[in-house]
Write a structure and sequence with these properties.
single chain, about 325 residues, transmembrane, mainly alpha, 13 helices, transmembrane helix
């Protein structure tokens, strides 16, 4: 019950912000929420399961493009388009995962990076289906039972997707599957000795997190009502990786903190120092990696630890005063 209450409070707070923000702030807020959703699923794949894959943004794009194509070109109703898009993401994730997860480390990274690059090539050469380099535009979210979800109410939909993604990954992390993922990450040989099917665990983790990225992509498709190859470029691939690493890999809170800081930093610095914000951005990431290898969440852990130590010492002092 406590967990449900926390989700309800989080939903009310995050949704309520949408009704007090201006149009520009609303756009930034929506995209921040979607980046956090992406970072949470990638954090599970990279930080908890230990798979250094670079195809997450590609599945984000597959979800976005697929739902638009199903609605605008195949004239599918929105519920069927959503189901078909999830099916496409699951099928493609399995097709990539089954051979790719045989690889490890550098080779897995190369294989998934090649898939991400192939996806961009398909978008650019897709003609009228993908809109080529210009992408797909001039569409809108269809009405649901005669009701069109726009404005702040669409932000509520994004909040729901974010919290659903968080809840799903939270339960997975605390299940036998989450323990299996951590065992595979830390020591595959020991995991095998404990009875863990390493390859199946990797395939499932890759497929689930890629499908969640596709769901986030579906929602993104109707934020600006436009999708194009530039949105899902390699720059976004490495930006997502940096968000998780800087925040603290393996920790959902770290993914949230890292995404919030790295997404908002260029927006806040650009008006102040112009194009030099890229230099500050890069320097900040280097300093965090060198001096805070556990990520920004490590600073929070240190502060909490010191506070608990201080409370413990204070309690010991008070106990000595009470003793005769």
């Amino acid at each position: 019950m406590k967990s449900l209450a926390r989700y309800i409070v989080a939903a009310l707070v995050l949704s309520g912000l949408a009704f007090v923000l201006g149009s520009y702030q609303m756009d930034v807020y929506r995209k921040l929420l979607l980046w956090i959703t992406l970072a949470l699923s990638y954090n599970f794949l990279f930080g908890i399961c230990g798979q250094v894959a670079f195809s997450h943004i590609a599945f984000y794009g597959i979800g976005a493009y697929s739902v638009v194509i199903f609605i605008t070109q195949l004239a599918l109703p929105l519920p069927l388009a959503v189901i078909a898009t999830v099916a496409v993401c699951l099928a493609l994730a399995l097709i990539v995962a089954i051979p790719a997860t045989r690889l490890a480390g550098f080779y897995l990274s190369l294989a998934t990076l090649a898939f991400a690059q192939l996806f961009i090539v398909v978008l650019n050469e897709g003609g009228v289906v993908t809109g080529a380099t210009g992408g797909l535009t001039n569409y809108s979210l269809p009405a649901i039972f005669g009701v069109t979800v726009t404005g702040p109410w669409y932000t509520v939909v994004i909040v729901f997707v974010l919290l659903a993604t968080f809840a799903t990954l939270w339960r997975l992390d605390r299940s036998w599957f989450g323990r299996a993922c951590r065992a595979v990450r830390d020591n595959p040989e020991a995991a095998v000795a404990m009875g863990v099917d390493v390859r199946r665990t990797k395939v499932l983790a890759y497929t689930i997190t890629s499908a969640l990225a596709g769901v986030a992509g579906m929602v993104y498709a109707f934020v600006d009502n436009t999708v194009n190859p530039a949105i899902f470029s390699q720059e976004a691939v490495f930006q997502l990786l940096f968000m998780v690493v800087v925040g603290g890999a393996g920790r959902p809170a770290g993914a949230i903190i890292g995404t919030t800081v790295l997404y908002l930093m260029p927006l806040l610095l650009s008006p102040l120092i112009g194009h030099h914000h890229a230099l500050v951005f890069g320097l900040f990431m280097v300093l965090v990696v060198i001096f805070q290898p556990r990520g920004l969440i490590g600073i929070w852990d240190r502060v909490v630890g010191q506070c608990r130590q201080g409370q413990g010492r204070q309690g010991q002092v008070q106990l000595r005063k009470v003793q005769p």
